[in-house]
Amino acid sequence: MSLILSIFSTIYTIVFIIVVIVIVLRIIKNRNPNLQQQSKYSYVYQAKEYFMTKSESEFFRMLDKAVCDRYYIFPQAHLSAILNHKVPGQNWKYAFRHINGKSVDYVLCDKQTLKPVYAVELDDYTHSYSDRQERDQEVERMLQSAGIPLVRFGEYKTLTKDEISRRFFEAHLNLSNEINV
User: Fold this and answer.
1) pTM score, two decimals?
2) 22 and 108: one domain?
3) Do the beta carbons of residue 36 and residue 29 sit within 8 Å?
4) How is the beta sheet containing 71-78 ordered, strand by strand?
């Protein structure tokens, strides 16, 4: 009998200590009601010095000269901004997760409709890594299934305005041929 009383006494003591701890924590929280918000919103940010890398900026200017009469150029475009993941017959939540966080260097949109017409990737050294190549293939597949050609540029510094324009024309023809096959 004394063993049972000893066990119950220990349990009551532990429960009492837990209740006291909970009460003390609530008192502390009530004294500083912004405590939870401070930890949630305590991150600090700084503006980046540049929006794009030097190469991306240089190519942006070249691209603008080549296509400015027909297209607006949007740099650093997330796929979730240009691809509709709500396709009937698929899990929309997982389809969104698949494209979320992925982006292309530029999207060219028709000046009249703002419809995305081309996606552009400037392939620097990072595109030679195997994990990046897998990502690039998947991005190209997703864009192709949506009817948006992905135009890739490697060494861009020697390209002329006409060569850049020709690459877009060829990409459009290639996509049209793949759709018709």
Assistant:
1) 0.71
2) no
3) yes
4) 71-78, 103-110, 116-122, 150-153
- For residue 48, the surrounding DSSP H or E stretch is none
Residue 146 near residue 81, CB atoms below 8 Å: no
Q: Would 124 be classed as within a structural domain? A: yes
CA–CA separation, 108 and 45 (whole Å): 30
Per-residue pLDDT tens listing for the chain (181 residues): 666 667 767 777 887 788 778 787 777 777 765 555 556 678 888 999 999 999 999 999 999 999 999 999 999 999 999 999 999 999 999 999 999 989 999 999 999 999 999 999 998 767 777 778 888 999 999 999 999 999 999 888 899 999 999 999 999 888 766 665 5
Do 94 and 26 have their domain in common?
Answer: no
99 part of a folded domain: yes
Which H or E run includes 82? helix 79-82
CA distance 169 to 136: 21
Radius of gyration of the chain (CA): 28
SS3 44: coil
